[in-house]
Amino acid sequence: MRTADGIIVASPGYHGSISGIVKNALDTLESLNKDARPYFTDRAVGCIITADGWQAAGTALTTLRSVIHALRGWPTPYGAAFNASSSAFGPDGLPVDPKDAWQLATVGEQVLEFARMQLAARAPAE
Asked: Which of 54, 72, 84, 115 lies in the 20 to 30 Å Cα band around 97?
């Protein structure tokens, strides 16, 4: 994390929130609290949720975005939400539905775009 300019956090929805395992992983960012860029500071963070139902997917995505804000990160404008009962991934791991592929590509592109802007802003003037 210390050297990352962008990151993607994905979580299953669990009772309308993010999973405990993802919460525990995010808790390990406390080790960065004294860094020049603590937690997710100045980093683009893409958010992806898979849940069983649209309501759970929406609330879990909102929760994840709130956690990213609390850790000083910049959630991407678009967050991907997948309804496990209607979204499917093939044996190759790729989404079957083109709209699902679009969601993943959009999150990745936004993380990359923001990371490039941050790098350019930190570059020394010529």
From this structure: 115
* Six token digits for residue 12: 């299953």
Q: Which two tokens stand for residue 84?
A: 């496990």
Residue 73: name the closest of 44, 46, 53 by CA.
Answer: 44
Fold of 6-122: Rossmann fold (3.40.50)
Q: For residue range 75-113, what is the model confidence (pLDDT) as tens digits? A: 999 999 999 888 788 899 888 999 999 999 999 999 999
| Environment class of 11 (CB within 10 Å of its CB; exposed 0-12, middle 13-18, buried 19+) | buried
Give me the residue spans of the domains in the chain. 6-122
The reported pTM is 0.90
